[in-house]
Specification:
The chain has about 525 residues and is α/β, with parallel strands linked by helices. Helices cover about 25% and strands about 15% of the residues.
Amino acid sequence: MINYRRAVIKSMAVLSALAFSACGEKTSDSLQVTSKVTSETARAANTPAVKAPEKSSGQPNILIILADDLGWADMGFRGSDIQTPNLDRLAAEGLVLNRFYSMPICTPTRSALMTGRDPMKLGSIYAGFQPWQNGGVSPEEHFMPQSFQAAGYQTAMVGKWHLGHTTEPLTPNVRGFDHFFGHLNTQIDYFDYTVADGYDLQENGVSVQREGYATDVHADESVRYLTEIRDREKPFFLYVPLLAPHSPMQAKDEDLAKYPKRRNLPATKKTYAAMVDNMDQAIGRILSALDEQGLAENTLVFFFSDNGGLEAFGADNGPYRGGKLETFEGGIRVASVMRWPGHIAPGTQTDDVVSVVDIFPSFAEATGVAMGHEKKLDGQNRWPALTNSGPDKRDGDLYFASNSPIYNKFHVSLIEDKWKLVQIIDHDWNELNIESFLFDLPNDPGETTNLAEANPDVVKRMAGKIRKWQSQHPINGVRVSLAPHPGWRAPKDYAKSVIPTEDLREDYLDSYTSGMRGKILQRRHGDKGKLSYE
């Protein structure tokens, strides 16, 4: 990866420097900051007086807030008309990551965050887990909150899981979370909490009833955890993956009323803005709870989006090309902010490359938590780069893929030093069509000039690396499945449909993949995928 410079914003009162792109140049006019925001004014408008710091256990608290399908440009500090004073406050009080990379869709990003491992190896990279699928991240994988549990942290999650929902070993309470409130699936209705006609809202495995807009409920429950549930003698690890602004496109009337100039045709820009606005309000309530509890000074807050926004629903990823479901920059370079008073300089931004797979090892380094994984991690410790205390350069390549939403059509990409290769691979019934796009990313972050034809050797070499990378995918890993099998019927309640651990066999079924037969079959499969899980 390129060793990008870090820019420090000299004045806390002015956030216009945040409108610079990852190459140190100003972005398009649509991203120019049009108003000044300061941490003092944001605090005065959105938070109560700060109480004395709570007695520290010596270990910092962790708060990870994950947006779902947020566009790169859809925040006030990047010039959007969408009101996001609380995200603007985080930007003023912390570090904006200009080159933070997620995966282009939901499940792979979440699986990479939790494991620090490449979702290609996990079999979760190509598509999100659907209610009618029984896939999940293997119970053999070690999850980040499990390491924090072992280090004495209390762990909690509020929001959308999307990493497995059919058997108990795949659910949050077994993957390292002491407390879980939320949804096992995605695409949740914001008002009745259903998906595919089944009810999906639970607390620690038990279906619960709530009233109100889902994002408000997530804020309520996050605040309840901070003020009522947690043990004040222990540090906490709180993960809040919000639904917003993912579809279904639903918003509250009072939030819609704030955007009279926006329209919902041809894209649902008005509803999208209202959903982002409401999400920011929820974040503000959580930050206020930290202030009220005297926790802000000793809490590392990390916010990011699981992928780029979907332009068809009103998101803006400018100045970058593409969006969700694609491996152009607009689909994978996402909004990201980090705050930790006394450790991260306020009002700063970085162009250092950081991937979602890096969060587990980086946060373990920041907190002194020992990682309990056994399988080799693909993430790297980027904490020295983020705090300007070590090398900025990220070693190695970064890969991305998506098989959604079109069956047998794949978007893949590889970032290798200055080069980025994007391939769109379409498996028709009788032929294979491949479009290749090669970009000099530092000089063309908007991916406007395709250099593939002028550099065929580079394309061939990088395409070979992508093919080798894809060969690591478990042969029956998840692929796109936008409709259920005709024989599937939704459970009335997803919490009640989870099969308990005691009703499951302990071992993985490998009848076709073990012994000599497995070796012969693997040789015959070649680079089509892995029969045995690694």
